[in-house]
Write a structure and sequence with these properties.
The chain has helices at about 10-25, 35-45, 95-110, 125-135, and strands at about 1-5, 55, 65-70, 80-90, 115-125, 140-150, 155-164. The chain has about 160 residues and is α+β, with helices and mostly antiparallel strands. The longest helix is centred in the first third of the chain and has 14 residues, at about 10-25. The two termini are about 25 Å apart.
Length: about 160
C-alpha cells in the first residue's frame, strides 16, 4: 500500500468511499449523498500544506481510503488546529489502512508551524475509531450526547485531540 497526496483524479474514488458511509453508516452525520460538484468544492477547500488530503492506493493506484486534515473552525485563532477524518473502502477494511493513514498524517503534522493540534470528532458509538485514535495517544476532549439523528438513531460525538 502506498500513501500519497490526493489529486483531482482521485476525487471520484474518494467520493464513492464517502458516499458509502453517508448511505450506510454513522461515521458521518451527512445524510445526503455528496455530488461530484460538492466533492470538487471539498477538494478545493483543502491545500497541500496544513489542510492536505492523503489517499492510500492499491497496486493500480486507485484510492481505497483517504485521510483529510481540514479546517477545524472558521475563525483565525483556530488556524493551526486541524480536524482529521479517515474513511476506508468497505473492501479494504481490517488491513491496518486507517492506522497507517493516521500515522502518516501525524508524522506529516509534527514539526510544522501551521499545525499544532489535531482534533478527531467521532460518533460516540464508533468504538473502532475511538479505539484507533486512543491507541495513537489522542486524548479525550469531551463527549456531546444526542447531537444528531441518523437512521432513526440519536447519536453523540466524542472529541479527541493530539498536540503535535
Amino acid at each position: 500500500m502506498k500513501i500519497r497526496l490526493c489529486t483531482l483524479s482521485d476525487i471520484d474514488a474518494v467520493n464513492v468511499i464517502y458516499n458509502y458511509e453517508i448511505e450506510n453508516g454513522v461515521a458521518t452525520f451527512d445524510s445526503i449523498v455528496r455530488s461530484h460538484e460538492k466533492a470538487l468544492a471539498w477538494f478545493n477547500a483543502h491545500n497541500t500544506t496544513n489542510h492536505p488530503i492523503f489517499v492510500a492506493v492499491d497496486d493500480n493506484d486507485k484510492a481505497v481510503a483517504y485521510c483529510s486534515l481540514s479546517q477545524y473552525r472558521d475563525k483565525d485563532a483556530f488556524d493551526t488546529t486541524v480536524e482529521i477524518s479517515i474513511y476506508v473502502d468497505l473492501k479494504a477494511r481490517r488491513h491496518g489502512i486507517a492506522r497507517a493513514l493516521c500515522n502518516y498524517a501525524i508524522e506529516y503534522s509534527k514539526g510544522r508551524t501551521d499545525i499544532h493540534n489535531i482534533i478527531s470528532v467521532i460518533t460516540s458509538s464508533n468504538e473502532k475509531s475511538l479505539n484507533l485514535f486512543k491507541s495513537l495517544n489522542f486524548k479525550d476532549g469531551g463527549t456531546l450526547p444526542a447531537v444528531g439523528i441518523k437512521f432513526g438513531q440519536t447519536l453523540g460525538i466524542t472529541n479527541l485531540y493530539l498536540f503535535v
